[in-house]
Amino acid sequence: MVFKYTVIEAGGAKKEGTIDAQSKDLAIAALQRLNLVIVSVKEEDTQPFLQKNFSFFSSGVALKDVVILSRQISTLFEAQVSAVKTFRLLGSESKNLVLQKSITQVADDIQTGIPISTAMNKHPNIFSPFYVNMVHAGEESGKLNQTFAYLADYLDRSYGLTIKTRNALIYPAFVIITFIAVMVMMLTLVIPKLSSILIESGQAIPFYTKLVIGISDFLIDYGIFILVFLVLGVLYLIRLNSKEGGRVYFDSLQISLPFVGGLYQKLYLSRIADNMDTMLSSGISMLHAIEITSSVVGNKVYEKILNETQEAIKGGNAFSDAFSKYPAEIPSIMIQMIKVGEETGELGYILKMLAKFYRREVETAVDTVVELIEPAMIIALGVGVGLLITSVLIPIYDIAGGI
């Protein structure tokens, strides 16, 4: 890679130029050996415009890609392939442009002598604090290949559970959106044509038919304003969710909603237990494990609970006692199981059992929600459309019968 630099020479003169190096750190080291005061070092874009890889739609890396990457690293390490060669190979084979660039940079950093965990820590959009600390623990214990196998297994479980939960909620959302779209089309396209026949007949119109015609007229006259209001509302909610207070509110709402609130609560409890078990098994201390788990749990309510739990443990309280202060968010069965683990010295095993238990609970809850919502949504769609059509067709049949 070519880097453009600005330096100050011994005489005080400013000098600009370029230097060829495998990484930015190596470029800086080379300039420092010349006794130059470095002002700036930036990678120079030497690739022709027409040969550039534009990645407007590849701004992120999916969890699935990280799962596959971890499995590949574990396999190559078991085959005793060197770290630099492993990351160079995986970087060149990756089809995701963002992942390809990041893995190549990790390989460059490792080649300069930087530990793998430190090199990965420079790419937080791909490697979470949990991931980096697990790799660091593997480096200290000399079991990196086993660590990456643990990570692949853990991420695979987490990915499967998250995707299953997400997909279970996507289907009802799709049905609800379809239901609303069908109702709006009926009210704005079909009902007006049928209602004109009723109005021209001059006969008395039933109350329920007037109500449907009134809703139809309202949507036709003010539909554009409703649409603008909805768009502004969505934009406001997105902006609110980007702020700390908004995130706390929405995350609290998420775990307290009817039907799906319990599902999300079990998902986060499973994630907490699985994270803690994986890190404690790798030799990471309890306090550090709680700190890392709080940063990756994905819910502000549980993040706050874990942070306060960490402070309570620092003050001399037991893990189970600290958790017992939050009966609404932490079920008593989890608290009692953790207490048993502390008393028997088998906390890691207990956490593993809790993770499995809540993972099964989430899968069961997801299957139940899907089984209940699917027929309910179909029935609601049929009943809604049927009521609309019936409210207009019955008066039309009455007119036809009176002719």
UniProtKB/TrEMBL annotation:
<protein>
    <recommendedName>
        <fullName>Type II secretion system protein GspF domain-containing protein</fullName>
    </recommendedName>
</protein>
<dbReference type="InterPro" id="IPR003004">
    <property type="entry name" value="GspF/PilC"/>
</dbReference>
<comment type="similarity">
    <text>Belongs to the GSP F family.</text>
</comment>
<dbReference type="InterPro" id="IPR018076">
    <property type="entry name" value="T2SS_GspF_dom"/>
</dbReference>
<dbReference type="Pfam" id="PF00482">
    <property type="entry name" value="T2SSF"/>
</dbReference>
<feature type="transmembrane region" description="Helical">
    <location>
        <begin position="378"/>
        <end position="397"/>
    </location>
</feature>
<feature type="domain" description="Type II secretion system protein GspF">
    <location>
        <begin position="70"/>
        <end position="192"/>
    </location>
</feature>
<feature type="transmembrane region" description="Helical">
    <location>
        <begin position="168"/>
        <end position="191"/>
    </location>
</feature>
<feature type="transmembrane region" description="Helical">
    <location>
        <begin position="211"/>
        <end position="238"/>
    </location>
</feature>
<keyword id="KW-1003">Cell membrane</keyword>
<feature type="domain" description="Type II secretion system protein GspF">
    <location>
        <begin position="274"/>
        <end position="395"/>
    </location>
</feature>
<dbReference type="GO" id="GO:0005886">
    <property type="term" value="C:plasma membrane"/>
</dbReference>
<keyword id="KW-0812">Transmembrane</keyword>
<dbReference type="InterPro" id="IPR042094">
    <property type="entry name" value="T2SS_GspF_sf"/>
</dbReference>
<keyword id="KW-0997">Cell inner membrane</keyword>
<keyword id="KW-1133">Transmembrane helix</keyword>
<keyword id="KW-0472">Membrane</keyword>
